[in-house]
Design a protein that fits this description.
2 copies of one chain form a homodimer. The first copy, chain A, is α/β, with parallel strands linked by helices and 341 residues long. The first copy, chain A, is built from 12 helices and 12 strands. Chain A binds a DNA duplex (30 and 30 nucleotides) through α2 and α4.
DNA sequence: GACCGTTGCGCAATCGTTTCCGGTATGCCG
DNA sequence: CGGCATACCGGAAACGATTGCGCAACGGTC
């Protein structure tokens, strides 16, 4: 089935040298002097035999596997996770590391089992990711391991990478302020205390508005899903409210808001401006395209790998900026003279 | 940093037995007789020392790593990929295997490098996945390896798992027929030959329609994206066409169609019924919720793992059914007496 | 010719398991 | 008391690399 792989010992024998020499040649180490002829001979034989090192054997000795684990509660289930995975994958591949991906489904027992399985395979380090930003309790079995938290935090001593949600809130609010909005600004989406992203975004929003001498006109309470947002928004409009600008807690909420606004005959952005968070695919699919503050998922992944592999200084919790993706859903308050025409 | 892990030899010494005995006890092998007392003693010591086997050492000897590789062109970039990953992950975890995930980005050089890296780590097998169903050329370096193709095929001798797109086409068409549609049925989305999913879906659609003595009233040509679909559909309506039912090539196309229909004042499903393919998140977010034929992504992943680990018979190319998710976007042709109210 | 630095390389142990061979008691039978 | 199962276990060689030493040969110096 699987054809024979030449071993280092075979290469050494065929080249007429010791395994030691062959090893030094193959790994390119220079702390043992090897003549050019010998070196070339070994390399030639290795190439002829199509030699590839057995990394398990190497790792057994050297204690380094060039392997890292990305373990998450719901890595694949959540739609954005792909970008995190991709960022980590790419960063790992660039550094010649391979990634084990695991999903605990939030089950502590499964989590424990997976961590042990990973440990048994001698992974060099862990990225522990959660889908929603929150405080995390680091599993006991991860104590003492090389570890970076992603999207969650657990004190200063463990490096963590999270999105700068407060900054995002400021950015979103500022986008409206810059467009000339001063009143009629409403928040859409519930402010539940367990949604850290939410509280922080709101904190940033209020800071930016406050700095401009503006305050929120009100808020529409709904779950962070299209249907809930649609219903709440429809009821809000039916009650006679007429918002001039909406800050939606995420793109899915924005979708629901769009549906209600359009059904009520309100134009975006002529009558109502909309900004949102996440910058998912949805943002470009809506009509008009949605201005959204992007979650830097790919960067979170990359950054976590960089820190894990010790290339970046770890400064406790690192907050990655959430950039504004400016599109067509924001215009100046009255009239159609918005910056996007 | 990382605390000491007890080795099997240590356990053996502390239990007063040979490593051989300890090994047999720990792996639960019965082909060497071991007294109950000895067994218990070893187990107790192992537990006290918190012993965990070093799988690298084990694998070095036994040639089995309990590790498989999922290698894909664009695993994370594409939004559905998450479900494939999740399915494989779960299936692998259930069988005590760990998954290496890799993304080649369609680059043959990177692909070659990644496969070699995986081979060097002695993975037990490969799942080679592509995001869009197509013929695949299997990389040379994968020849002779345990391998299952996912979403692509390359001849009878290599097991493959793909969605049953022809069946999906039949299902979609049948949904309209069952609702009473006989004419005014239009296709939305380009029929490009490289989109195997497309050709096969159309094949199924025409088969089902033909069997019912019905034929397509026409088609709207557009790329498989919301914006393109919106524009094409808007133009189509502007030209005076009035479709009674739409079969959209995927949910994103359906989104574009929804936008155009709603802008034209046409009601879904009162005036126009819509069915689609993929059953992405979008389908439940739209108003009305979209009837869609689901891509069984999670099952593709699971199935590939099962076949790879030899639990399922490999019968060449296995086509997984694409089930209909019936929602509110389909009703009987005229009047609002659709089955979903 | 003794000494020494440099150059070039090999021996053998090691990593933590598994596994191929045995081996030693003990009891029982005849 | 010899022989033979049976029950229980251990020695040591793998697996395929890395690595701590040590060592031979050569050339030059005094």
């Amino acid at each position: 089935m699987t054809q024979h792989r030449a071993t280092l010992t075979e290469v050494a024998r065929r080249a007429g040298v010791s395994p030691t020499t062959a090893s030094f040649v193959m790994t390119g180490r220079t702390d043992m002097r090897i003549s050019v002829e010998t070196r070339d001979r070994v390399l030639r034989v290795a190439h002829e035999l199509n030699y590839r090192p057995n990394l398990m054997a190497r790792s057994l000795r050297s204690k380094v596997t060039q392997t890292i684990a990305l373990i998450s509660d719901t890595i694949a289930t959540e739609q954005y996770a792909g970008q995190i995975v991709y960022g980590s994958l790419a960063a790992a591949a660039e550094r010649r590391h391979l990634l084990f991906i695991c999903e605990t489904e939030g089950d502590p027992v499964l989590e424990e089992r997976l961590i042990n399985d990973l440990l048994d395979r001698q992974v060099d380090g862990f990225i522990y990711a959660t889908m929603y930003t929150r405080r995390a309790r680091v599993p006991r079995s991860l104590r003492g391991q090389r570890l970076v938290l992603l999207n969650c935090a657990a004190g200063r001593e463990i490096p963590a990478v999270v999105p700068d949600e407060v900054g995002a809130g400021r950015t979103a609010a500022q986008a409206l302020i810059d467009a000339g909005h001063r009143d009629g600004i409403h928040l859409v989406g519930e402010r539940a205390p367990h949604l850290i992203a939410g509280s922080e975004r709101i904190q940033g929003i209020e800071a930016a508005l406050g700095a401009a001498g503006v305050s929120l006109a009100g808020s529409v309470d709904c779950a962070w899903w299209p249907e809930s947002a649609y219903e709440a928004m429809a009821a809000f409009l039916a009650a006679g409210h007429l918002p001039k600008a909406l800050i939606c807690m995420n793109d899915r909420v924005a979708l629901g808001a769009y549906q209600a606004l359009q059904e009520a005959g309100l134009g975006i952005p002529e009558d109502v401006s909309v900004v949102s968070f996440d910058d998912s695919d949805l943002a470009t699919w809506l009509r008009p395209q949605l201005t959204s503050v992007a979650l830097p998922h790919q960067w979170l992944g990359r950054r976590a790998v960089e820190i894990l592999l010790g290339e970046a200084e770890h400064e406790g919790v690192e907050r990655l900026p959430m950039p504004l993706r400016h599109r067509s859903s924001v215009a100046s308050p009255r009239g159609r003279s918005g910056r996007d025409g």
